[in-house]
Design brief:
- This protein is mainly α and 187 residues long.
- The chain has one domain: Hypothetical protein af1432, CATH 1.10.3210.
- It contains eight helices and two strands.
- The protein has a two-stranded antiparallel ribbon.
- Helix 3 runs antiparallel to helix 4.
- The protein starts with 17 loop residues before the first helix and ends with a helix.
- The structure holds fe (ii) ion (2 copies).
- One fe (ii) ion binds next to loops.
């Protein structure tokens, strides 16, 4: 096992069904509107796109490790869209001064405009900033994303120069996966 694929517990990070993850997350990642998140920085050198992929992947990994029964599709889609606020929050603009408090609402508004969401996916997005936003997660999936987001945000802030942890190397894997889907003959 190479060191840079290790998770926080020192073990290789792999989901039980990696293909399922790419299929569900890829459904969001392939959307041109979601592609805009590649242009916005979340923390350090990590784009919102890479952050969303990492949070979605780590949420699934946590569910498996903790043995929490979840709806994988809604967990992954909600996590992918949890920061779909579509602006540069660190640009110092006055409108983003209260980003920490307001962006979950903005992400939900954008996500409802661009995707068809289930109530659980809406809850995941709306509640991910607990306890900064006072409403606690209403479902297991929302609690997992809320936790995974905090771990990933701390990781990004602490690793501003390079992010070798596997959840942060998924962007390339996703690009390759999406390319394969385009190339595969449909019949
Ligand atoms: Fe957020
Ligand atoms: Fe986030």
């Amino acid at each position: 096992m190479s060191h840079d694929t290790a998770g926080p517990d020192g073990r290789e990070m792999r989901l039980a069904d990696e293909e399922e993850f790419f299929q569900i997350a890829g459904g969001i990642a392939a959307s041109p509107s979601f592609g805009r998140t590649k242009q916005h920085i979340q923390h350090g050198r990590t784009s919102v796109y890479a952050h969303a992929l990492a949070v979605a992947y780590y949420s699934c990994w946590l569910a498996e490790k903790l043995g929490v029964k979840v709806n994988k599709r809604e967990l992954i889609r909600g996590a992918m869209l949890h920061d779909y606020f579509l602006y540069d929050w660190a640009d110092g603009g006055d409108g983003h001064k209260w980003h920490g408090f307001t962006h979950a609402g903005k992400a939900l508004e954008n996500a409802k405009r661009d995707f068809i969401l289930t109530p659980l996916e809406e809850d995941i997005i709306a509640r991910h900033m607990f306890p900064l936003n006072l409403h606690p997660p209403g479902h297991r999936e929302s609690a997992l994303v809320c936790m995974a987001d905090k771990v990933c945000s701390a990781y990004e802030t602490a690793h501003r120069k390079s992010t070798p942890w596997r959840p942060y190397r998924l962007e390339e894997e996703m690009e390759a996966w999406l390319k394969r889907q385009d190339e595969e003959p449909t019949n």
